[in-house]
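In response to the reviewer comment on reproducibility (Comment 2.3), we provide here a single inverse folding case reported in full, input and output, so that an independent group could reproduce the run without further information from us. The structure tokens appear first.
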């Protein structure tokens, strides 16, 4: 058995324990997630995206854009990217069964 196969078997063997650790840790922080809460979060991410794009379009008003506008765009991009990462992480947690999903809020 080669080293790569050993590493893959090692990870496969630990997978159930790691999944359980994720379920336990995430459930402690997010005991239940319903459609209403998930949708509110998705809408919040959409608003962050809209603010970022709105700022980007201000560049068309000033050519070249002002330094303060560029700095603000960078700040909004960072917020947007973090929001998207959080959204993706929550979706991944739901897909993996780390979060208890309920029918109603």
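Designed residues, in position order:
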């Amino acid at each position: 058995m080669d080293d790569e196969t050993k590493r893959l078997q090692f990870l496969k063997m630990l997978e159930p324990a790691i999944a359980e650790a994720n379920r336990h840790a995430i459930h402690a922080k997010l005991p239940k997630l319903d459609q209403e809460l998930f949708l509110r979060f998705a809408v919040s991410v959409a608003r962050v995206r809209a603010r970022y794009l709105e700022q980007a379009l201000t560049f068309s008003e000033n050519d070249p854009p002002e330094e303060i506008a560029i700095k603000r765009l960078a700040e909004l991009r960072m917020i947007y990217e973090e929001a998207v990462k959080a959204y993706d992480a929550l979706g991944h947690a739901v897909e993996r069964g780390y979060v208890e999903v309920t029918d109603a809020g």
